[in-house]
Each structure stands twice: as structure tokens, then as C-alpha cells.
Specification:
Blueprint (H helix, E strand, L loop, with lengths): L2 E3 L4 H10 L9 H10 L3 E3 L2 E4 L5 E4 L2 E5 L4 E5 L10 E2 L5 H11 L4 E5 L26
Length: 138
């Protein structure tokens, strides 16, 4: 069972990003702050989860209000850069499914998750998957 924790701290978020073997700069709160300070209609809405074994998982998200504020749209990362979950260890498919199922509750217009080629995982079947590509330079 995955438990969502309502409060998140930038310090803890950075800790997890530093410990995660597949996290990039784009998974840090610094990257999210750049956009929310530039575009006031965006807010940081990162989600923190704790797995059964105590492993902490963060999903960086940016939130925008749509339909006169009645609904929210979430983007896993701005500008098409790597997004998705980061954690203290590689998480299993079932844990990924539980995390993403928890996102589709509430007044949500859309959720867009840009994947991370450094950690490939399948999303639940309810999510529409679109192909994309990237180049990585050493």
C-alpha cells in the first residue's frame, strides 16, 4: 500500500533527488521554482508518497487551474524535460500503479507525465501513452 503525504518540503525533495540514481536537475524543486516564479498562474504541486517499507517517493508536478478554477491540470515537468517519479530506490510496477492511480482522484482536468529515459516504467492502462524521443549527451 502506498500512502500519500500531504506536506512536502523542498529540503526532503532535494534529498530524494540527490539519492535517486536516475533523477536529473529537472526533478528538483529548483527547476519547478523557475517556472512558478516566472508564471504566477502555475504552482508547485509535488506529491510525496511513502511505500510500505518506508521508501520515500516524490513526483514533481506543476499545477494550473482550468475551467475558471473548477479543475486543475498537472504537468510532471515543464518544457518537455524529464519528469516522473524519483525515489530512494527503484520502485516496482505495482508501486508505480498505486501512485498513478492515486492521481486520478478529485477535480483533475488532465495529467501529463513526461517520462525519464534513465528509468523506464509502464503507466496504468487508464493513461494514454504517446511516443516521444530524446538525445542524451555525455
Amino acid at each position: 500500500m502506498v500512502k500519500e503525504i500531504r506536506s512536502t518540503s523542498y529540503i526532503e525533495w532535494n534529498e530524494i533527488a540527490d539519492q535517486c540514481e536516475y533523477a536529473t536537475f529537472f526533478h528538483t524543486p529548483t527547476w519547478s521554482k523557475v517556472f512558478t516564479e516566472t508564471y504566477p498562474e502555475m504552482t508547485i504541486a509535488a506529491k510525496k508518497f511513502v511505500l510500505n517499507d518506508g521508501t520515500r517517493v516524490f513526483l514533481p508536478l506543476i499545477k494550473t487551474k482550468v475551467m475558471r478554477g473548477l479543475f486543475s491540470s498537472y504537468i510532471s515537468n515543464i518544457a518537455g524535460v524529464y519528469g516522473g517519479v524519483i525515489s530512494e530506490r527503484k520502485i516496482k510496477d505495482q508501486e508505480i500503479n498505486e501512485i498513478f492511480y492515486s492521481l486520478i482522484k478529485g477535480r483533475i482536468a488532465s495529467i501529463s507525465v513526461t517520462g525519464n529515459p534513465l528509468f523506464d516504467y509502464d503507466l496504468p492502462k487508464q493513461f494514454k501513452i504517446e511516443e516521444d524521443f530524446t538525445h542524451i549527451i555525455r
